[in-house]
Amino acid sequence: MGEDKKLPVIKCLVFIIDWNKKKDVSAVFEKENVRFHFISRGRGTANSEILDLLGIGSTEKAVVFSLEQAIMAPELIRGVRKKLGAQAAGAGIAFTVPLSGINNPILKVFKESIMKIFEMKGITFHKGAPQEGAEYMNEIKHDLIVSVVNQGYSDEFMTAAREAGAGGGTVINARGLAHKGPVKFFGVSVQEEKEIIIILTSRERKAPIMQAVSQAYGIATKAGGIIFSLPVDLVMSLNQDEFR
What is the rounded CA–CA span in Å between residue 13 and residue 65? Predict the structure, then answer.
């Protein structure tokens, strides 16, 4: 009889690196058979005090999103560190966000992949088994604050965020989709051109930052900000060989 094995835990793995290093991440993903990933262009807004640590200063950045098994995330981060030769300052940062759900076709891809490996090794796979990677469900010490504001407000927004304790953030240009014609959301006109601002922060700093930016740039202001946070359970600076 084969050994019982666990279902995979899937997480969203995010890298923020210099734009000219995006091919290095893709190369590691291809080598490690990462099934898919997405790259968005952004700009960093960190102040000089944390530039050396996090590598998210005011320069052009690549924000790389992928889905991967929790058990594989640390190895992928280390692989990218090695590829970048990341002992120099400003290499970037990586973190994982737990998922509360995923559509069945995507989960099926991960299940089938791991089942093939188990079959080759004579390991029994049970649908009711616990999840593989549960040991990587770390205590939540960080949060990702995600804010969607009207275009042109990101610099002011980040000034308020820094005053409330944020070290820096990354801005991604985006476009809102809605019905044709003038759109009202809670009585406020919704503009199509948007800026998505992501701020990685410690859990204890999350509330004051969100309170400050919501008051100054929330949905009822001209910035029209929609602001929410996501838990982050693994953080690693790409120029330091340590997890946080």
Answer: 6
- Taking alpha carbons only, the member of 34, 44, 45, 39 closest to residue 11 is 34
Q: Give the Cα separation of 26 and 235 in Å (integer).
A: 20
Exposure pattern of 138-158 as b/e (b: 16+ CB <10 Å)? Answer: beeebbbbebbbbeebbeebb
Residue range 142-232 forms a domain whose CATH class is alpha beta
> In whole angstroms, what is the distance from residue 202 CA to residue 238 CA?
18
- The pLDDT, as a whole number, for residue 147 is 94
In one-letter notation, the amino acid at residue 237 is: S
**Which 8-state DSSP code applies to residue 85?**
T
Q: Which tokens hold the place of 45?
A: 């807004």
Are the C-beta atoms of 231 and 100 separated by less than 8 Å?
Answer: no
Ordered mean pLDDT values, 10 residues apiece, the chain (244 residues):
56 91 91 86 69 54 89 89 70 86 75 65 50 56 92 93 92 71 52 86 94 93 91 84 50
pLDDT of residue 130: 42
What is the C-alpha R_g of the chain?
20
How far, in Å, CA of 175 to CA of 170, rounded? 16
> What is the C-alpha separation between 59 and 21, in angstroms, rounded?
13
The pLDDT of residue 118: 58
Q: Where are the domains of the chain?
A: 142-232
Query: What tokens appear for 109 in the block?
Result: 């891809």
Residue 183 φ then ψ, to 5°: -120, 135
* H-type alpha helices, the chain: 22-31, 48-54, 73-84, 104-121, 154-163, 203-217
pLDDT at res. 27: 92
